[in-house]
Amino acid sequence: MPMKRLQTVIYQTFKHLACLRHRITALGCLVLSASLCGCGGQEQGKVAPAGGQAAAAANGSPDNRRSLDPRLVPIAQAIEQGRISDARVRLQVYLADEPNDGQAIFLFGLTFHRDNRYDAARRHFERAAQLSPLYHPIHHFLGWCLYYLGEPEAARSAFEAHLALTPDEGDSHFGIGLIDLEEDRLKEAEARFRAAIELQKDNPGRVLAVAKAHSRLGDALMKQGRHEEAREHLERGTQMDPDQYEALYQLYRVLLTLGEEEAAERALQAHHQARQRVRPE
Amino acid sequence: MKRTIWCVPGLLTIVFAGCGGPKEEVQVAANTDAPPVLHFSDITTESGIDMTLTSGRLPSTQILEVKGAGLALIDYNNNGWLDLFVPNGATLEDTERGPGWRLYENLGGPDIRFKDVSEQAGMTHTRWALGATVGDFDGDGFDDIHVTCYGPNVMLRNTGSNSFVDVTPTARVGHPGWSTSSAFGDVSGDGMLDLYVANYLEFDAANPPPSTRFLGMEVLAGPRGLPPQADALYRNNGDGTFEDVSVASGIAAVPSMYGLGVVILDFDNDGRQDIYVGNDSMPNFMFHNQGNMRFVEIGARSGIASNVDGSNQATMGIGIGDVNGNGLPDVFTTNFSSDMNTLHVNLGNMSFEDQTQRRGLGIISRPFLGWACGFYDLDLDGHEELLMVNGHVYPQATRERMDSDYEQPPLLFKRRGERYERFADDSAGEWLNRPARDRAMVFADLDGDGDIDLIIGEMNGPIRVLRNDGERSKSSVWLIVELRDERPNVGNQRGLGSRVEWLVGDERMTRWIYGGGFMSNSPPYAHFGRPGAQSTGRVRITWPDGVVQEEAVPSLNAKLTITRR
Question: How far is CA A170 from CA A107, A183, A193, B19, B431, in A?
Fold first, then answer.
C-alpha cells in the first residue's frame, strides 16, 4: 500500500476519535505507518529479510531490524484499520511460533494501546524494546504509554530513544514538549513544539499533528505571558483542526486576557460546538 | 517516638477580647536539629473507633454504592476537643435501615481516645447517609449537623445537653432526593448560617439502571445517562426554619448537574460569600454573590468550570489553600483515573488559572481516582502539604484492564519551591503506601499537640485514625486560630467563611475557615506551622462580611481564640 494512501486510511480511521489522547494515538499510528512503508526509519525503503532474525528471535537476544518484518505488515494494517480481534488472533498464532519476536510483541501491545489500555500495552512494548531495540515505533508508542500512565521521565527517555533512531520525527518532539510543559520548562516546550511544526508542516498526512503542535505552542506561550503570540498559534491550530475543543477553550481564555470580549465569546461557542461534535454528552 | 504536648485546648486557650489578652507561658520543647520527619502512626485499634463503614455491598454494582460516606468533625459538647460524626450508609435492599450513624466523643488528652456516644446522643438514624456538614444554624452556641442522604436529608440540632434532635420537618431542609454534600455559610450576610445542598442524580435503588461498558468491561452505570438533580439553597430565617430560595437567588437558573462537593467562601474578597460547587463530569459552578441573596453563575468565565482544556472533570475532593501566596483561596480538585487532578489558582477578580502542570500535580495523578483532599502543614515546616485519598469506583479496575487499580494508596505532595513533589517514603508510615478504597478524610489536631492528625474513611472498610507522630525541627512553631462571633443575633459564631492571616515580619500565611467540602467538613479553625519565628507576629481576620480585625499574637505553640469586636 503506498505511503500516502495508507496514511489517508489511518487518518480517516482516527479522525472521528474524540479527545486529545485519541488524536495523539492517531498521530502515533502515522509514525507506525511511516515505518510500515519504510519511510520513517534510518534505512528508508529497506525491509529486513524475514528469516535473517530467526536465530536472534529464537534465543531472545536483540535483533537489528529497523523496518517491520513483511510477515507482520498485514497484521499491522489490520490494527490500523481497527480489526483488533483479528489482529490479536493472528498475533497469538504468530507468537506461538516466534515467542521472542520483538516486533510481533510490539504489535500485540499495540492492540491494547488502540483500546487505550496503556498499562497492558506498556508491558509488551517494554519487552519488545528489549528484543527489537532498533525498531523505532516501539519507543514512540512506549513513550505515549508512559505519558498516559503518569511517568513523565520514563516517557521522555522513550521519546528520546525514538528520536535517536529517527531524529526528524516531529511527534516525539511533540511528546517531549508536553512533558516539558508538565515540568514547567516553558522555553524548552516552546522549542519542541516549534520543531514539531517545522518537521511536519510539509507533510500533507500530518495536518492534525501540525495543528496540535500550534495549539500546544500557544499553550506554552500563554503560560509565558506572551498572549498575542499565543493567540496567533491557537488561532492557526484551531483553523487547521476545528475539532480541537481544548485549544478553542484556551483561545477563549487568551482572548479574555487580551480584552477581546466578542472574539472570546465566539471562541467559547466554537469550543462548545467542537466538544459536542467530538464528545457528545 | 517523641511526643510533646504543647498545650491543652480548654486549659491553655488564650482568649482575645480586643487587644492584649492574658498571656500564657507555653512550653517549647526541643526535639531535634534535623529537618522535620513526617510520620503518622495508625492508632485505630487503641483509639476506640471500631467501625466498618457500609456503602452497599462489595463488589459494588450500582453508583449509589461507590461514593462511600464522609466524616464530620464537631465539638458537640464544647469541651475544646473535636469529636467525630460518621454518616454511615446502608444497602440497596433497604436504604432506610443500615447499621446507623455514629457519634464518637473525643475523650481528650494526648492519646486520642474516642467513645461511642451515639445512643446517648440520640443518633438513632439508619438512613443511607453520605455526607455531613457542621454549623450552628440556630445560634445557640452549639454546633448542629446537616446530613446528606439518599432519601430525605436530616438536620440534627444540638440540644446543648450532649444530644441531638432531628428537626428536619421544622427546619424544612429535608430534600428528598440523593444529596451528596452540603455547606453552611452566611451567604445572605445577616449573620445566620444559610445552607447549600449539592444534589447528585435520580436513582431508584429498587429499580436500578442496567450496567454499561467502560474500556471493554461491563461496569456499573452512571453518572452519564442518568438524570441530574438540581441543587438547593436555603436561607436561614433565624427562627429555626429555612426557606428554599433556589429560584429567587438565581441558583436554579442553571441546568441541573451531578453535584458532588460544595464550598462556601468569599473567593474574590468583596465581602460576600460565594459558592463553589464541584460537579461530576459536568462544568463546576461558581455562584458569585451579588448581594441581596442573588447569585450569578460565572464558572466558565472565571475559568473554574473545567480544566485548562475546557474538559469537564469528575471533581470529587475539594482542597482550599493559598498556593501562590496572594491571599486568595485556590481550589484543588481530585478527578477520575486516566484524567488529571486540577489546581485552579485564584488570580483575583474571579479569574482562575489551571496551574496543575506548572505546579507538578498533573500527569502523576493519571493512575489515581481521587477523593477527599486537603492542604495542611503536616510537618510544621511552613509549607502546606497536599494529601488526598484514592480508590477506583469499578471493582473490575486493574492496571492491566483500566490503567488504574481498584484499591489505591493515598497521594502526598510536599512543596518544593513553586512546585509539588510526590512523597511516598516509607518513613511516613505504612498507611501512605497501602492501597485501599478510601473516600473520606478529615484533618484536625485531635490530641492538642499542635500538629494535624488524620481520620480516613474507607468505603466498606474501616475508619482509620492516624496520629501525627512526626519529628519536628527544633525551631518549628505552630498556631491554631479559632474564631468567636458572639454578637447578638449572630448565629455564625465560629466565623465560617473567614480568612485568617498570620503575619510575621514580611511573611504572610493565609488560611480559611469554611463550610463544606466533599461530603465532609474541615476543622473549625485555622492551623499554621512555621520552621521558626523571630516574633509572634499578628493575625488578621477577615470576617465573612469583609470586616477586618487585626490582633497581636501573644505567644506561639498555642490555640488562640479571637473574639470579634
Answer: 22, 20, 8, 65, 43
Exposure string of B443-472, with b = 16+ CB inside 10 Å and e = fewer, is bbbbbbbbbbbbbbbbbbbbbbbbbbbbbb
Task: State the greatest distance between any 2 C-alpha atoms of chain A, in Å, as a whole number.
Answer: 67
The whole-model pTM stands at 0.89
Residue of B nearest to A276 (CA): B311
If 0-12 CB within 10 Å is exposed, 13-18 middle and 19+ buried, where does residue B124 land?
A: exposed
Name which of B3, B74, B15, B80 is nearest B40 in CA terms: B3
- B38: its cell numbers: 513526617
Q: Helices A227-240 and A245-257, interaxial angle, to 10°?
A: 150
| Mutation site, B214, B215, B224, B309, interface A, largest A CB count within 10 A | B309
B310 and A256: CB-CB below 8 Å? no
Tens of pLDDT along chain A (281 residues) come to 343 333 333 333 333 333 343 344 444 445 565 555 433 333 333 333 344 455 555 567 788 888 999 999 999 999 999 999 999 999 999 999 999 999 999 999 999 999 899 999 999 999 999 999 999 999 999 999 999 999 999 999 999 999 999 999 999 999 999 999 999 999 999 999 999 999 999 999 999 999 999 999 999 999 999 999 999 999 999 999 999 999 999 999 999 999 999 999 999 999 999 999 988 76
Contact B401 A150 (CB under 8 A): no
Q: What is the mean pLDDT of chain B?
A: 93
Check CB contact under 8 Å for B403 and A182: no
Under the banding of pLDDT at 50, 70 and 90, the label for residue B4 is: very low
Residue of A146, A184, A227 for testing the chain B interface, max B β-carbons within 10 Å: A184
**Residue of B200, B70, B75, B60 whose CA lies nearest to B129:** B70
| CB neighbourhood size of A233 (10 A) | 28
Which residues of chain B are at the A interface, by a Cβ-Cβ cutoff of 8 Å? 215-216, 224, 300-301, 303, 306, 308-311, 338, 357-360, 362-367, 399-403, 418-419
Q: Do B309 and A182 touch (CB under 8 A)?
A: no
The type of residue at B421 is E
Chains A–B, number of C-beta pairs less than 8 Å apart: 70
Distance set, CA A82 to CA A9, A75, A144, B361 (Å):
11, 11, 19, 34
Distance from CA of A145 to the nearest CA of B (A): 10
CA dist., res. A269 & res. A272, Å (int): 5
- Substitution target in B357, B405, B416 with the highest count of A β-carbons within 10 Å is B357
Q: How far is A45 from chain B (nearest CA, A)?
A: 36
Q: How far apart are the first and last CA of chain A?
A: 37
Please tell me whether the interface predicted TM-score (ipTM) of this complex is above 0.90: no
3-state secondary structure B45-114: HHHCCCCECCCCCCCCCCHHHCCCCCCEEECCCCCCCCEEEECCCCECCECCCCCCCEEEEECCCCCCCE
